[in-house]
Amino acid sequence: VHRSMVSTQKSSSVRKHKRRRGNWGGSFMLFFLYSSSSALHSLTRGFTHSPTSSNIARRFGSKICWASPSPSQILDAVDSLKVDPDGFMERIRENNEPGMTPDFLPFFVDGLSLGHIKPSFAEHLRRFPDVFAVTSDAVSLSPELASLEDRSNAVDKATRALAAEGVIQGWRDEPYAVKPSFLAAPSLHVDRGAAACFGVQAWGVHVNGYVDGGPGEGLLMWVAERSATKPNYPGMLDHLVAGGQPAGLSALENVVKECGEEAGVPAALARGARPVGVVSYAAVRPKGLARETIFCYDLPLPRDFIPVAADGEVARFRRLPLERVAALVSATRAVKPNCNLVLIDFLLRHGHLTPDNCPAYEALAAGLRAPPPGCFAPN
């Protein structure tokens, strides 16, 4: 099977996403040098951004629009990209942009500080005094809501009302468990689309689907192009499989579910995915404070396996050598932001980035697993 084989679910449509102008054509090269063309260098310089998108938090909001070229066009021209050594660290900074100010209010549930809320969103919560107690210092769930079911039902009713008014955007009808750690009992369930509004810790699973190409090719990774109809980050490049962690499923159960839905990976094959660690990030987004820990999985795939998008969330898949993946991550912003972290982790773990060819090796390893100080206040 040729390494550039493509699996297509449906044709891509024109994507208009906003980006700031930037020089992504890296003037330095790693020892594992990549070829580049001046044509694509000019192409990747062509990103622009809306005047209102003055920082990374806004630029990486869920409603983004592309100038030319689109991620799909960049993927088509990926063989002409070269690595920008400075770009790897920039991807980490983009996912961990400081911006949380002291006026963020701690969010308490049953005496536990489980989130951080923008004052502007807290003002909307004042309209539900039976659910939220809002002061100048904190937001707390009413102590009258003593059980998980009572809390979740009350918060669901309030947040659905705010979503209907457009205060909360991107409603998902997918409950997230609000808790201090992954294996702790949940204190509350909140819709995935509202998680950042409350600044609660979220979890997800990302699966690196790859093939051993043998001598001369090395490892080849499957990359997905998200559907243009996705509510968040439409058209951007993604992992073979990735998804948020819903309430009621184990991490492995979620991996198997997402593998079947997003890439047509049989359950027996998906269960072979190996947990290999975590990456984490925290940044202020338009909604609020996004805090997520991603469980990373490696899934070796047969050379003749071709993924198929079963749920329509992927426009196409393409299998790429690791050097092309490294170029996509470091020299463009075509990859969904948090996927960059998982891909950098993969490149480090599999020896593609090493202490000898990557000047920022130590900083990359440290930055993937601990948000920079000041990104969010400790609970």
TrEMBL record:
Q: What PANTHER family does this protein's entry cite? A: THIAMIN PYROPHOSPHOKINASE (PTHR13622), THIAMIN PYROPHOSPHOKINASE 1 (PTHR13622:SF8)
Please give one Pfam family short name: DUF4743
> For the Nudix hydrolase domain, which residue ranges apply?
202-345
Write down the InterPro entries for this protein, in alphabetical order.
DUF4743, NUDIX_hydrolase-like_dom_sf, NUDIX_hydrolase_dom
Q: Which GO terms describe its molecular function?
A: 8-oxo-dGDP phosphatase activity
Q: What is this protein called?
A: Nudix hydrolase domain-containing protein
Which parts of the sequence are annotated with region: Disordered? 1-20
Q: Which SUPFAM superfamilies does the entry mention?
A: Nudix (SSF55811)
